[in-house]
Amino acid sequence: MEKKEIKIEEPKGKLGVLLPGLGAVSTTFIAGVAAVRKGISKPIGSVTQMGTIRLGKRTDNRVPKIKDFIPLTDLDNLVFGSWDIFEDNCYQAAKNAGVLDRYLLEQIKPELEAVKPWKAIFDQKYVKKLEGKHVKSAPTKWELAEQVREDMQNFKRENDLQRMAMVWCGSTEVYLEPDNPIYRDLASFEKAMKENHPGIAPSMLYAYAAIAEGVPYANGAPNLSVDFPAMLEFAISKGVPICGKDFKTGQTLMKTILAPGLKARYLGLNGWFSTNILGNRDGEVLDDPESFKSKEVSKLGVLEHILQPDVYPDLYGDMYHKVRIDYYPPRGDNKEGWDSIDIFGWLGYPMQIKINFLCRDSILAAPIVLDLILFLDLAGRTGMKGIQEWLSFYFKSPMFAQGLYPEHDLFIQLMKLKNTLRHLKGEELITHLGLEYYD
Question: How far apart are CA 357 and CA 354, in angstroms?
Fold first, then answer.
């Protein structure tokens, strides 16, 4: 049966990039796009810019770049807007973050200085280690969300934007239990906004505002944000794509690469001890136990879902998984992660794996932000709505449809992402049970 391409609107005009939080990740992302535009650097780590996609049989030799295969917005058409609790423009914020060297920043200084953050929604109850100075005020949380909507409307009008997409790049909020009754449906949630319910965190107000404006939304932190029934109901009713949560960058990226390999060889796991030190604003925020719990829950679920201890009790039924994060200011954005992994093989004989990953957190996160913006815009132009599971590749704790479970295996996630792109363009899906076996 002949496959048909799905109608995708062309990415005409400018795309507004909305970033709650103008910290290390956002400034590194914006600076990177500016540098790529000027030909100073290359977009290393970006699937949309560097990635290829195989089409048809291996013998067909059809391997275009993804950006040449699927209609994505050109980097020259991205326009940046942001909110932050500090009023520093993007250039000043990038200098303060200390991720990129001054020589690079000076070459793109005018572009960065043009990005000046709007006042942010902030409540110290949800991010206890920071103090907001450049913040919005209103009698109710409903009205705060309305102010964010107004910022978005003004941004779109002033920059003659055709479309927008939002990616949360702000701090990790305190842990909130997902079974609160106010999250069950949209009516309950909107009522709670108007009553200033403590279960509604700032990130939820940004998510609500985005969906209300028909803007795709991705959650880059482990916050509850958009991952509950009321927001899913809202997104589907408004025809808006959503995804999250928590960018998969350093240590968890390594787990989703290595754990599938252990499982593929049916090697057992007794324990996996992970510890991190980092000194940026994220590290300071995570020094608060309640914010750390949000991150811990996000990071701990990875191994269980990949290794399936209920299916393989002899291999993984008794595994012990521990995660620590410690704030260490001298390290700045250069996070260091140690993993001590106790495995066992044939006849139960023990072995060990040690990993010491000295990574740059924002360098790993920046291309994720770019890909999410471009892919969410693609989803919006294609008429996709609700949870975008095909973007699980980018998250520690991927959102998933009710009745299913999250896929954490990086390689299965990548296959799902690329097969979604093939499907959109009417190409055969790659299953590795190719027709060449039967021709």
Answer: 10
Give tens-digit pLDDT for 383-426: 999 999 999 999 999 999 888 888 999 999 999 999 999 999 99
Range of the domain at 204: 14-247+363-424
Residues 112 and 273: their CA atoms lie apart, in Å, by 40
Q: Where are the beta strands (DSSP E) in 190-247?
A: 217-219, 241-244
CA–CA gap between residue 205 and residue 131 (Å, rounded): 19
408 near 253, Cβ under 8 Å?
no
Closest CA relative to residue 278, chosen from 251, 305, 313, 314: 251
The answer to whether residues 50 and 196 belong to one domain is yes
Alpha helices in 38-168 (DSSP H): 47-50, 66-69, 90-97, 102-107, 109-113, 141-158
Query: How many whole angstroms separate alpha carbon 321 and alpha carbon 256?
Result: 14
Determine phi and psi for 279, rounding to 5 degrees: -125, 10
DSSP 74: -
SS3 324: strand
Residue 414 belongs to domain with CATH number:
3.40.50.720
Same domain, 315 and 395: no
Residues 218 and 342 in one domain: no
> Do residues 259 and 392 both lie within one domain?
no
Q: CA quadruple 230, 235, 236, 242: dihedral positive or negative?
A: negative
Amino acid 325: pLDDT: 87
Largest Cα separation within the chain, whole Å, is 69
Task: Quote the CA–CA distance of 298 and 295 in Å, as a whole number.
Answer: 5
pLDDT in tens, 217-243: 999 999 999 999 999 999 999 999 999
Residue 266: alpha-carbon gap to chain centroid: 30
231 close to 204: Cβ distance less than 8 angstroms? yes
Provide the sign of the torsion angle of the four alpha carbons 50, 381, 210, 400, taken in this order: negative
Report CA-CA distances (Å) from 171 to 18, 129, 146, 197, 410.
Answer: 15, 10, 21, 20, 25
Helix (H, G, I), strand (E, B) or coil at 219: strand
Calpha distance 320→309 (Å, rounded): 11
Interstrand relation of 350-358 and 336-344 (parallel, antiparallel or unpaired): antiparallel
CB 378 within 8 A of CB 67: no
pLDDT at 199: 96
Question: What are the backbone dihedrals phi and psi of residue 125, each rounded to the nearest 5 degrees, phi first?
Answer: -65, -25
